[in-house]
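Box S1 | Example of a co-folding query
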Amino acid sequence: MICPSCGKLASTWMRTALTLQGVTIVQSFKGQLRCQQCGILLRNKKYNKQMWYVLVVTVIVMALNILFSSHLRQVIGMGAVVIYWIILFIVILFLFVYAMWKYSVLEIVKAVEEK
Ligand SMILES: [Zn+2]
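Box S1 (continued) | Returned holo structure for zinc ion
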């Protein structure tokens, strides 16, 4: 995500994942953040279409896993399946945050709207 005001990286993905990025929780829910370079208030306008590919691939991977989960349980056992699902969930969550950060398109929030 590049800041449209200063042209630099508005936020690292770690900052996206772990902090509110300089705004309140309410603003954060509205997709707002502050640029880490120039401090301007930005808004998540939309996502690049790659984000939707990530979404589709995720759904397919999940569907395949659900489809084969009983087979997998017979092969590796229930305990291993639970661990497998937890790891899968974390990986998908991680990928999602990364994709949301990577493919986010930002716009500047006007000073009037800021209040
Ligand atoms: Zn900036």
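Residues 3, 5-6, 8, 10, 35, 37-38, 40 surround zinc ion (CB under 6 Å). The longest helix spans residues 50-76.
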